[in-house]
Amino acid sequence: xxxxxxxxxxxxxxxxxxxxxxxxxxxxxxxxxxxxxxxxxxxxxxxxxxxxxxxxxxxxxxxxxxxxxxxxxxxxxxxxxxxxxxxxxxxxxxxxxxxxxxxxxxxxxxxxxxxxxxxxxxxxxxxxxxxxxxxxxxxxxxxxxx
Length: 146
Hints:
It is a single chain. The protein is mostly helical. Helix content is about 45%, strand content about 0%. The chain is elongated and about 80 Å long.
């Protein structure tokens, strides 16, 4: 038998006694005018709740690995929502994380057909130099140090 069921069977009579006696005691002491004619029946409902940590870890890994779309992650987290609610949530998530900076700095957001700013010529008509050099010193990892 599940521990929860054992505890429910153990506590149900005592909780019913307290719910029956407390209004009478309150009335006798002058705190209340409420009376309960008969002893109440206490029933514990089904309580199945999923522990949230495994789902949170799964969603975190999917996000980190970019293995699932925002839509899929919302559907995993909130299976009870319909398509309109999911799309609204996806829109809100995108708005929250929109920084105005393109995801890929080499592919800046611009109207289609317009060349990226780094590919255009400088005001003097000469091409702009493009160089990206990243070293461990720039990243702050300290590779090669003891």
